[in-house]
Amino acid sequence: MPNFTSRPVLRWAVPAVAAVAVVGAGVAAKTLAVAAEPDLPPRTAAQLLVDLQTAQLDGLSGTVVERADLGLPAIPLLTGDQSAKLMSLASGKHTLRVWYSGPDRARVSLLGTQGQSDIIHNGNDTWIWDSQAKEAQHFAGKPGSAADKGAVPSPTDMPTSPQEAADLALKALDPTTQISTGTSAKIAGRNAYELVLRPKDTASLVGEVRLAIDAQEKLPLRVQVLPRGSANPAFEVAFTSVNFARPDDAEFKFNPPADTKVTEGNPAAKDAEKQGGEWQKQHGSDADKPKSTVVGTGWTSVLVLRSSDGAAGAATSDEQKKAQDAISQLPTGNGGRTFNTKLLNVLFTDDGRVLIGSVNPERLAQVAADPAAALK
Questions:
Q1: Which residue has the higher pLDDT, 371 or 168?
Q2: Where is the composition biased (Polar residues) (predicted)?
Q3: Is 37's pLDDT higher than 90?
Q4: With contact defined as beta carbons under 8 Å apart, do 115 and 109 qualify?
Q5: Can you spell out the DSSP letters for 19-80?
Q6: Under DSSP, is residue 96 helix (H, G, I), strand (E, B) or coil?
Q7: pLDDT tens, 307-344?
Q8: Cβ-count burial of 266 within 10 angstroms (0-12 exposed, 13-18 middle, 19+ buried)?
Q9: Average pLDDT, integer, range 220-230
Q10: What pLDDT is recorded for position 234?
Q11: Quick count: other Cβ atoms within 10 Å of Cβ 333?
């Protein structure tokens, strides 16, 4: 199987982590309208996979609608003011404008009823702007470089484009995946083929992933993730309009308005790093390093990590208390407390581990008892 995960064409969108951190709720939405099925020359699933592998993206601009119905539990951790901002893309419908002009120029704008929030990446500069709060953060250096020490935002698992969503789905391809073609569609006014990925392991919460691939440009126009046993997507991200011409360079230039408060870097992250370093000096840096492991592969892989590590010394007691209070409200079962959604389950074990996977609760409990997940 070709290595799809290394292809930059599926990683073009600006990191999503800052987008969810700076925007509030109440985002404008559009209906994901799809026209009648177009008549396209037949292509096999293998041919569509090759299309995704060989596609070239020089430039793009358009409007993306993201819809999530993950069935998140209603606990204060998710409903507080700041948490609502962080989880804003994890429920409801949201409209984003996107621009891409090569790996060094990309922009995502999350549109809201009372303003907008942007992430603009241009060369060595990344800006995060909240028009409603009249605040902007500026990060110098390429994301992920040694110089920024993690200060520049990095991607999360909440995709802001069909390309990002397709990338995540293709990472799980292995012999446990059944691959087939679906019905063709017209999306954002363009003809598209459909590729369907179905996990064979019934322990996976994912029933199938549907990728609509542009018949001409060979790039994803829509991605839908359906829970096992459901005919309705729990997550969907799709273009409602798209143009594959390179955007004007002006789209990636940002000059903060006169009344905007500008912050260089992320002071909170730098302060946490400093406090974490002091904690390690006092308690030892080797024995107490964060530990994690992945048990299994593909769709049913489970991430296992400690609920606290050396960095916990950088968190305030108030933050720790809020997190513990939220966890204590979760239902108990399978040797700990569980956080369950349609596509992701989390188990907080009594011995201080956290298990995360797109698998049923029984599989999480099985992994928790596996010696490979002991994290001794």
A1: 371
A2: 326-335
A3: no
A4: no
A5: HHHH--S-B------EESPP------HHHHHHHHHH-----EEEEEEEEEE------HHHHS
A6: strand
A7: 764 444 445 566 677 777 778 888 888 789 998 899 99
A8: buried
A9: 95
A10: 93
A11: 13
The Cα 1–Cα 174 span in angstroms is: 8
Rounded Cα distance, 50 and 76, in Å:
45
Instruction: Quote the strand ranges of 235-307, DSSP E.
Output: 235-243, 261-264, 292-295, 302-306
- The conformational region for residue 220 under phi > 0 = left, psi -120 to 50 = alpha, else beta, is beta
Residue 112, CB-side half-sphere exposure with 13 Å CA sphere: 20
Q: Write the pLDDT tens digit of every residue in 113-161.
A: 777 889 999 999 999 998 888 999 999 876 544 344 444 443 334 566 7
Q: Mind listing the domains of the chain with CATH numbers?
A: 4-262 (2.50.20.10), 284-373 (no CATH)
Q: Which residue has the tokens 């989390």?
A: 346
* pLDDT at residue number 173: 72
Q: Residue 361, CB half-sphere, CA atoms under 13 Å: how many?
A: 15
Neighbours of 239 (CB within 10 A): 26
Of 262 and 169, the one with more pLDDT: 262
Token look-up 């500026």 returns 138
Q: Which amino acid is at 272?
A: A
**Rounded distance, CA 49 to CA 109, Å?**
30
Residue 140 has, within 13 A of its CA and on its CB side, a CA count of 3
